[in-house]
Amino acid sequence: MTTADGIATGSGPGGGRPPRRDVLRYGAAGAAGAGAAGLAGPAAAFAAPRGGGSGRRGGRRVAVLGAGVGGLTVAHELAERGFEVTVVERRAVAGGKARSLYVPHSGTGGRRDLPGEHGHRGVFGFYHNLPDTLRRIPLPGGGSVFGRLTPVTWIEFARTGNRPDIPLPVRPGSLSLSGAPLLVATLGGLLAEGLRLPPWEAAHFARLAVTLFTSCDERRFGQWEHLAWWDYIQADRMSEDYQKLLGGGAQLLQALRPPTASTRTCGQGLEAIFYDLLGRGSDGPADRIFAGPTSEEWIGPWVAHLRALGVRFAFGRTVTRLECRAGRVVSATARDHRGAPDRIDADWFVAAVPADRAVRLWNAALRAADPRLAAMDGLRHTWCNGVQYFLRRPAPVIAGHIVHVDSPWKLVSISQSKLWRAPFERTWGDGQVRESLSVDISDWETPGILYGRPARHCTREEVAREVWAQMRAHLGRAGRSVLDDSLLHSWYLDEAITEGPDGLREDDPYLLNSTSSWELRPDAVTAVGNLFLAADYVRTYANVDFTSMETANEAGRRAAAGVLTAAGASEAPEVRTFRGYEAPEFAVLKREDRERWRRGLPHVLDTGRR
């Protein structure tokens, strides 16, 4: 496990260079023990405690607005330290994008409703903040939620036509990092052999990857943040396979758009995955998912534990307004499903809603108090949603992630139930479903192969049929697909995708880490004295910063640390964050690159760029 080494606030290229030292430290875990997971249930009546001025030093009342991973994380950290926390959530359940989706009224004979996932719920080995939280969520009878993770050992790059599929084991290996030239040659060989790219293209990409790995922070934020990934890897000059495997891969794996995605963000993710596969600084296997539906394995026990710590939940409340006076939030207003208003009083407010909803709360007074909130208007979003296929028989595919390389909608699938502990047909549904096949759709703008329209211009049923057709084209040979139509029992598209007279709408968009977007993202601690932020758009420094459960968790930790400081809670244990792995072999190269950056020179390996 990596050592704790977090971040202090600071400035740098684009208004936010990652600082060197951390002021956040870890506190002891809170009270153990939780009963059965109370995930949904009726919305709790919200009656805020009275007394004390908003934001008074020493005040202990905290209103967390949003029950996604970021909101639950800040609630966890503060409840462990004796704060009175109420979480306000617009849905009837907790978990945000991480929650499971259930097909209503699909369970019979004592079985639970059919479960689906918004995405694949990958908990990667280079995650450190999230696994620490999982270890601190106790289970009845002993153990923790962390023990409910199961490794994914294979990933397959599936192709259409007669092009061969590329199955790759996801296991830590060994590779020398003794020098940049040797690493370029070794990595190029692995790409040529593993992804079957032309050797010169593999070597070209390997040189670009090592350039990123050995770049100093100043160059990463001052140069690579402002260059699109597609342009950095010079995809226009390369083969179609290079573009799909190494250009489109950014969108396939991170819901990014290669033509506009930040090279810094893509390179950061590539570096983390690379070290993970080497077994360097990993918190466990390179790829893991939960051994059952996420809400049952993780979110439910988490909510139960938070309730045991005294956290109150007000479900079914949509926050519509933050009242700001003299540079501080004095109250918030939420409305229930009938439109009835609730006033929320607290000493400290933590906004843990997605960026597209947060900007609607930033009124003129808040924007004047902190101009960085107004900058969030420039953040971009995309659609990235899941569809579940429930099968009558297990599909003959690998028990791992399948990247459908040639799919116009950038599909990644996984037969999750192959990795779940409970027997599917006896646990969920009507007894006829034996497998759940989860698929992420990352591109909603490109025409499909069945209807010739982008996903967002299809009906929900057409989306399901189109995705099935694109998967069938990838899985099977000699005109035969392993996804025979007779397998299909039913499907369920993410409920965030709604259908209206004007077409499909998206209620849960993803943040795009586009070029220069770092400049638009705020820190967890705002200039508004008692307002803090805990969501995946917040600047994070400890590991990676693309949209993920890990970044939301880190943002929640930083928001909690901000509350502790503002409240003057010096007696409370400080909050810990974890840094990602940094190869010591590259320390000298990064120092040399820092000197070149200061002199206005390009990276020593960046020989072909103008």
TrEMBL record:
Pfam families: Amino_oxidase. Gene3D superfamilies: FAD/NAD(P)-binding domain (3.50.50.60). Residues 70-564 form the Amine oxidase domain. Residues 1-23 are annotated as: Disordered. One of its GO terms (molecular function) is oxidoreductase activity. PROSITE patterns: TAT (PS51318). It comes from the Bacteria. InterPro entries: Amino_oxidase, FAD/NAD-bd_sf, TAT_signal, Zeta_carotene_desat/Oxidored. This is FAD-dependent oxidoreductase. It comes from Streptomyces luteoverticillatus.
